[in-house]
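pls design
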């Protein structure tokens, strides 16, 4: 029987382990809509149970804690590293249940985000986390949102059982490249992270197919690969009398004989073949994508509609600024994660210097918050606008201009595609214009059927003219006479946002999760 440290009070443990959890930013909760039910406590909303956000977009209303900060690993960037002299604590499963239920009843929280340092060994750590979730769901009948971080090297059987109790699972990639990981976290390997990531992806896909949804998460089809293992699951479910229905059949209509032939050769396919990775844009994740085998048994991959496995999907987090990767390398890794592992989200965490080490930025160095913000904007372009890393950046120009949002930065590098005539441009072309988003593009398409457009009318539709005016024409005319010159337009755009950018980049303010004290 495990003996837990009883020298610390519950309040002291909470103070230590909630503070240690603030550096993990992957805690959004969209994707699950579960109503309250009789005999259970809490519910979960698809729009996100978190109602408060920090200034940089971090979610702050989940109870975000570590199971333990007593780590056996010595990752150089981590405050809980084994060699750091800090107060250590470990929650028992019952203690976390008590906190969640009591905080929920007081309306402090609406869900739980549970992570942990590697306490004793990965198996023991995941067993503690499993016991915590099992008690919450079964003994305390907690029906609210739960996000759990998986531990590298943990047994696949434990990950599977936790996935049936949690709404979202994630495992941190930690650093954008394998070289950075081996340098700063030598006890972790890329395979120890990607193997459970692949296993979780397959189980999530199986469940989605079992309930009649597409196997892949909702994002722009240009950033989705078709996976051979997913195709196998689809065929199994589609041919099974227990699961065959019209929706499953519809999900497979896009798989042509040519695609099937390529899938059986373990070749990833992009829906837009013209956007496939070029050789210079491949990452170390691609080698692990389709040909790697999962530790999970095939019979566990198919899913069942009555047993949801992590219905809100899986996510990961990368630390930005601890190592010297370019924005192009980071975005290429992100794209590979979306295409090869079908992640719901990739989160970026600006590195806050915590430890003295020659391989890390010096303590006192400001975290790159503006760079983190630009990467989130670029991530949005990948997921919903159909952009690809190789379009936004190149090896010759591998970093964003931090004074501009990524779409403006891309447009200025591709002025040969502008100006765009709003009266006749198609939807995908309008979406690539700075200052025009998804809603305003749809409004333009509808409005131009009824009559001619003007700059005043499209501004009322939501177009941000201070950016769009340099890249569009209405009825053949520009808003103001300008020359399409990169330097000139850059000066105009950066002058507009210079004050806001300076406040983000130079204020030195660090956003943290809301303190419970």
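designed seq:
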């Amino acid at each position: 029987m495990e003996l837990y440290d009883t020298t610390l009070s519950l309040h002291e443990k909470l103070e230590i382990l909630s503070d240690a959890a603030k550096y993990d930013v992957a805690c959004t909760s969209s994707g699950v809509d579960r109503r309250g039910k009789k005999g259970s406590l809490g519910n979960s909303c698809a729009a996100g149970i978190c109602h408060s956000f920090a200034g940089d977009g971090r979610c702050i209303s989940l109870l975000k804690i570590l199971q333990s900060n007593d780590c056996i690993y010595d990752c150089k960037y981590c405050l809980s590293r084994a060699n750091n002299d800090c107060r250590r604590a470990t929650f028992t499963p019952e203690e976390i249940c008590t906190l969640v239920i009591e905080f929920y009843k007081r309306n402090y929280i609406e869900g739980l985000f549970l992570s942990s340092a590697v306490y004793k060994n990965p198996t023991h750590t995941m067993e503690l986390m499993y016991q915590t979730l099992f008690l919450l769901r079964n003994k305390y009948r907690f029906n609210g949102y739960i996000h759990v971080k998986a531990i590298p090297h943990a047994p696949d059987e434990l990950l599977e059982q936790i996935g049936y109790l949690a709404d979202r699972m994630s495992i941190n990639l930690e650093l954008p490249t394998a070289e950075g990981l081996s340098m700063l976290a030598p006890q972790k390997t890329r395979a120890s992270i990607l193997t459970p990531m692949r296993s979780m992806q397959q189980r999530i896909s199986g469940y989605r197919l079992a309930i009649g949804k597409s196997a892949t998460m909702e994002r722009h089809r240009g950033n989705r690969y078709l996976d051979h293992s997913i195709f196998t699951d689809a065929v199994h479910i589609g041919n099974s009398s227990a699961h065959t229905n019209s929706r499953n059949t519809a999900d497979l209509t896009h798989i042509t004989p040519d695609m099937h032939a390529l899938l059986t050769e373990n070749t990833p396919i992009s829906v837009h073949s013209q956007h496939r990775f070029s050789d210079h844009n491949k990452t170390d994740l691609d080698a692990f994508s389709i040909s790697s085998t999962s530790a999970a048994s095939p019979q566990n991959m198919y899913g069942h509609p009555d047993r949801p496995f992590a219905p809100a999907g899986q996510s990961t987090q990368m630390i930005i600024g601890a190592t010297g990767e370019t924005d192009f390398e980071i975005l290429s890794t992100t794209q590979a994660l979306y295409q090869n592992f079908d992640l719901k989200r990739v989160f970026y965490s600006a590195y806050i210097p915590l430890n003295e080490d020659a391989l890390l930025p010096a303590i006192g160095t400001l975290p790159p918050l503006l760079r983190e913000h630009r990467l989130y904007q670029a991530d949005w372009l990948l997921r919903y606008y159909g952009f690809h890393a190789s379009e936004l950046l190149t090896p010759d120009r591998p970093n964003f201009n931090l004074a501009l949002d990524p779409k403006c930065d891309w447009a200025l590098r591709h002025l040969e595609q502008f100006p765009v005539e709003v009266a006749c441009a198609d939807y995908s072309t309008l979406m690539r214009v700075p200052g025009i988003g998804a809603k305003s593009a749809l409004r333009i398409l509808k409005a131009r059927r009824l009559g001619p457009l003007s700059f005043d009318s499209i501004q009322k539709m939501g177009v941000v003219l201070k950016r769009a005016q340099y890249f569009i024409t209405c009825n053949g005319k520009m808003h103001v006479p300008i020359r399409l010159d990169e330097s000139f337009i850059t000066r105009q755009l950066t002058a507009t946002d210079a004050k806001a950018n300076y406040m983000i980049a130079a204020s030195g303010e660090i956003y943290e999760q809301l303190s419970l004290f």
